[in-house]
Amino acid sequence: MPRSPSPSRPQGSEAPRPPPLPDDAGEVLIGLARAAIADELGVDVAADASPPWLHFDGACFVTLTTAGRLSGCIGSLEAERPLLADVRSNARAAAFRDRRFPRLTELELEHTTVDVAVLSGASPMAFTDEEDALGQLRPHVDGVVLAYGDRRATLLPRVWGHLPDPRDFLAALKQKAGLPRTFSIDQVRLSRFTVSEFREGGDRG
């Protein structure tokens, strides 16, 4: 079974490249996320952790929607542990450790939809000014990471559904990092990534 690279991996060697996600990846990942949340609530829910692709390093975001409202969203930007561990950890964090929302209860879990987005690697953007950066963004495709000093903010591609204008998208990203909407883009670093998104009860996005 493939494993994530161990600390003893020779310096300079690359981590094994994960295989493409299979057609049933959404069902598997959502099942694992829901089971991890249920387990912390003391409820036993079966989930399939056997597929070999889960043991390659991967990064994901887990988003929870309860009764139609966002109730938790936590994720990883870099693949630093097996995807199996990442989805379980982020699911528990989204349900119980997202400081923006109360802890999820067992009753609420019954009315909660679980979404899992698996990230590609983030690629740094090279741009000359804000107009150049805006022109490079691909609405409904790119997730974006903004870094400024020790501040970091991320918006997933799904946010384009609420902010279809790249200018509004970038302004929201600045605000999420605690910066003014008019903050000069010359002072920040931008990276972008894509996702394979799986919606519970829906299609792959």
Question: Would you write up a description of this structure?
Answer:
The protein has helices at 25-40, 83-96, 106-109, 130-136, 166-176; strands at residues 60-66, 69-75, 112-119, 123-124, 143-148, 151-155, 189-193, 195-199. The chain is an alpha+beta fold and 205 residues long. The strands form 2 sheets. It has a 4-stranded antiparallel sheet, covered by helices on one side. α1 (25-40) packs across α2 (83-96). The longest helix is centred in the N-terminal third of the chain and has 16 residues, at 25-40. The protein is globular and about 50 Å long.
Helical content, roughly? Answer: 25-40%
Strand order of the largest sheet: 2-1-3-8
| Total domains | 2
CATH topology of the largest domain: Glycoprotein, Type 4 Pilin
Uncertain segments of ≥5 residues (pLDDT<50)? Answer: 1-10
What is the end-to-end distance? 28 Å
Q: What CATH architecture of the largest domain do you see?
A: 2-Layer Sandwich
CATH class categorisation of the largest domain: Alpha Beta
Element layout with pairings:
Layout: H1 25-40, E1 60-66, E2 69-75, H2 83-96, H3 106-109, E3 112-119, E4 123-124, H4 130-136, E5 143-148, E6 151-155, H5 166-176, E7 189-193, E8 195-199
Antiparallel strand pairs: 1-2, 1-3, 3-8, 4-7, 5-6, 5-7
Please tag this protein with its features.
disordered N terminus, 205 residues, globular, 2 domains, four-stranded antiparallel β-sheet
Concise summary:
Helices cover 25% and strands 22% of the residues.
